[in-house]
C-alpha cells in the first residue's frame, strides 16, 4: 500500500522529538506521538504503520492520523491532542431560551406551589415548546451560570 502521508523529519525536528522523549516531562500521549514520528520517519527507521502500532500498543489508524496531522499541520499539531471544531453536542438553550428560563424562575410559581423546582422549570420549558426536551440538570447549570 502506498503511503499518502510521508513523514520526513528535519534535523531540528528530530532533535526536538528526541528531547521530548528523553526528558519524559511531557504527557504520555505526547511522548508516544513523538516516538511514533521518530520511528515512521522516511529518512530514519522507516517503520510501517503496523510495526509502530504493535510497538507502542496503539491502533494502526492512530499512526496514520499522526502521520497525516504532521504532514498537513506541522510538528506542533501532530504532538498535541486533536482540537474539535465544535463541541460533541449542541446547546439546548440559546440566549432567548435562557432569558425565558430566567424570567420564569424569577416569576410566580405555578398554582399550588410555593416555589419553582428544577423539574417544574424543565417541564414548563418543554410545555411552552421552547425546547423539545431538557433535563433538570441543564436547567440547574443554566441558572447557576447566570446566578
Question: What does this entry look like structurally?
Answer:
The protein has helices at residues 11-23, 28-40, 49-56, 60-73, 75-79, 95-106, 118-127, 136-146. The protein has two domains: 11-79; 95-146. The protein is built from eight helices and no strands. The chain is 59% helix and 0% strand. The chain is mainly alpha-helical.
Provide a short characterization of the protein structure.
This protein has helices at 11-23, 28-40, 49-56, 60-73, 75-79, 95-106, 118-127, 136-146. It is mainly alpha-helical.
**N- to C-terminal separation?**
58 Å
SS strand fraction: under 5%
Elements, N to C (H/E) = HHHHHHHH
Largest sheet: none
Query: Care to count the β-strands?
Result: 0
How many separate helices?
Answer: 8
Specify the overall morphology: rod-shaped
Weakly predicted, low-confidence segments: none
What structural category arises from helix and sheet content?
Answer: mainly alpha
Relative helix content: 55-70%
Reconstruct the topology from this structure:
Layout: H1 11-23, H2 28-40, H3 49-56, H4 60-73, H5 75-79, H6 95-106, H7 118-127, H8 136-146
Helix pairs in contact: 1-2, 2-3, 2-4, 3-4, 7-8
Keywords:
mainly alpha, rod-shaped, 0% strand
Amino acid at each position: 500500500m502506498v503511503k499518502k502521508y510521508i513523514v520526513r523529519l528535519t534535523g531540528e525536528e528530530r532533535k526536538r522529538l528526541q528531547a521530548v522523549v528523553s526528558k519524559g516531562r511531557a504527557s504520555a500521549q505526547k511522548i508516544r506521538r513523538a516516538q511514533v514520528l521518530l520511528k515512521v520517519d522516511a529518512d530514519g527507521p522507516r517503520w510501517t504503520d503496523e510495526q509502530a502500532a504493535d510497538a507502542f500498543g496503539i491502533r494502526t489508524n492512530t499512526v496514520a492520523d499522526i502521520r497525516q496531522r504532521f504532514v498537513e499541520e506541522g510538528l506542533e499539531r501532530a504532538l498535541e491532542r486533536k482540537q474539535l471544531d465544535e463541541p460533541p453536542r449542541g446547546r439546548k438553550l440559546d440566549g432567548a431560551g435562557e432569558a425565558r428560563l430566567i424570567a420564569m424562575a424569577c416569576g410566580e410559581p405555578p398554582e399550588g406551589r410555593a416555589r419553582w423546582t428544577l423539574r417544574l422549570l424543565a417541564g414548563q420549558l418543554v410545555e411552552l415548546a421552547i425546547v423539545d426536551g431538557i433535563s433538570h440538570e441543564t436547567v440547574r447549570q443554566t441558572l447557576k451560570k447566570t446566578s
